[in-house]
Amino acid sequence: QVTEESLQADSGSDCISLELRTADGALVTLTADFRQEVKIFRALILGELERGQSQFQALCFVTRLHRNEIIPSESMAKLRQKNPRTVRQAEEVRGLEHLSMDVAVNFSKGAQLSSHIHNVCAEAKEAIYTREEDVKFWLEKGVDGSMFEVLPQTSDLPDLQRCKLCADRWKPCICSYSLSIEWYPCMLKYCKSRDAGGKVSSYKCGIRSCQKGYTFDYYVPQKQLCLWDEET
């Protein structure tokens, strides 16, 4: 499976974005906002019209951006692709991350968390999710807590099942969505040089590429919003 990706960097606003289309036709975007320490995954999933869904469904997952997860925006902006049609394979496969997205984000207030939420998540106004541990980190940074709403948990609703096990399409359940970023520049490589006096110094001499998969679990008010999560 070969995936075509487009990468963009804006060193002025200190952010990068990466877009790819998955094998099932979904359009996945990753936006990394270094200034706010926020990363946003957006998925535009083609709807099943014959099963009463709209043309597409949009989801946004917002998580904390950690240092050294991805190369800085100014380094990304300097990347030049010599052979655009070359098929590249990631040098490192980073482990699958399983995230329980137990908090909803209010779209109209989300710009306080990251200005990019307004553009990236415009189609997913009612489906922006994050998790409690990331919320705690942002609250300590002074972000307004009123934009977050804790979603129902299995402990609140004992009969809350995973959507793939739920027979009734109109019942609430825990949906699961998986995506994979097949290739992204995750680290800078440094080389050493020695000057005439024998002094050693290091300089940036390339990038290391990674591949990483994510699975997001989150509450939906009805299984109809999670038809892909069915056992085939």
Automatic annotation (TrEMBL):
Coiled coil: none annotated. Pfam families: OAF_C, OAF_N. Residues 1-138 form the Out at first protein BRICHOS-like domain. Residues 162-230 form the Out at first C-terminal domain. InterPro entries: Oaf, Oaf_C, OAF_N. It comes from the Eukaryota. Belongs to the OAF family. PANTHER family: OUT AT FIRST, OUT AT FIRST PROTEIN HOMOLOG. This is Out at first protein homolog. The gene is Oaf.
